[in-house]
Amino acid sequence: MQEPLDALEKHMQQLQQAMRQAQMQRDQALLGHLRAELRRAQRSYDALFDAGDEAPSGEEPAAERTPPHAAKMPAREQVHQVLTLLTVPAAPKLISQVHEALFAGSLPTTRLATLRRDEERSYRSAPGARPYYLCPALTSDHLSPARALFTISVWPLEDRIVGPLSARVHYLTSAVKFTEALQRLTPAPETMTLGARQLVNHYALNIPGALSADHHPQDPATAPDLALLRDAAQQELAVHADDDTHDRRDAAQRARQQLDEAGRLFGAPFQTARRLRSVT
């Protein structure tokens, strides 16, 4: 039982440190997520002790037979946590990378393969039974599900639609949000995890003006300039944001007129999308 306990103790310490940083930055949204995750970790920690006390003599405690990842929060909650931080639709790979960089443990993309389908099935069997659903982004032209992009049902419809400029806008927005989170949670750039450093370098390589002259992104040990990356992403974001918002608002207005509530969450079925294209 010692290894799971050690892992949970380390996880709770990381969460407590992150909560202090979030409180200093007055980031109440992130603080709420971290506090909820700490409660879950504490319950898992207590359960390991209970299982060890109640195990029959000579029998391996159930907690030791459980894989270490079983004590983590469900995948849908992990995805919700990352999307809430990023504030824009995101693909499974990015969600996994951000989660691994900012939160304890990993979130393999294989765990997300059937998640959207499960969420839609749950909604259609009992609409509104959950406080939120993980939904696909909707394409602005056909109002159909966008491939491999997660959103949250409680977001405004405009924020769950992707238009011609949205991919770039979402890339820049996620760069800003991720960088800001790193600045809150990481006391110094050199203390970043390798995953965080790799993702920051990926952003910096694809945003003009985000790399300082002495930065070497191919070197995984190089600590990037987070402030420079954030400012460069914000500057380019200002160029595209208004046009993207206009396109998505127009599409959201059509969706409200043409789709029912389920369609506004999970997209128009193929036949419906064809019909909508013929009348627009």
Question: How would you describe this protein?
Answer:
- Helix 1 (2-24) packs antiparallel against helix 2 (28-54) and helix 5 (92-102) crosses helix 8.
- This protein has helices spanning 2-24, 28-54, 62-65, 75-86, 92-102, 115-125, 166-185, 194-205, 226-258, 261-266, 270-279; strands at residues 134-139, 145-152, 161-162.
- The protein is 60% helix and 6% strand.
- The protein has 280 residues and is mainly α.
- Mean pLDDT is 80; it is low at 51-71.
Short note summarizing the structure:
The chain has 280 residues and is mostly helical.
How many separate helices?
11
Instruction: Please give the order of strands in the largest beta sheet.
Output: 2-1-3
Number of strands: 3
Strand residues, percent: 5-15%
The secondary-structure element order is HHHHHHEEEHHHHH
Q: How confident overall, as mean pLDDT?
A: 80
Unreliable stretches: 51-71
Main β-sheet, in a few words?
3 strands, mixed
Give the helices and strands, then pairings:
Blueprint: H1 2-24, H2 28-54, H3 62-65, H4 75-86, H5 92-102, H6 115-125, E1 134-139, E2 145-152, E3 161-162, H7 166-185, H8 194-205, H9 226-258, H10 261-266, H11 270-279
Parallel strand pairs: 1-3
Antiparallel strand pairs: 1-2
Helix pairs in contact: 1-2, 4-5, 5-8, 7-9
Relevant terms:
280 residues, mainly alpha, three-stranded mixed β-sheet, 11 helices, 3 strands
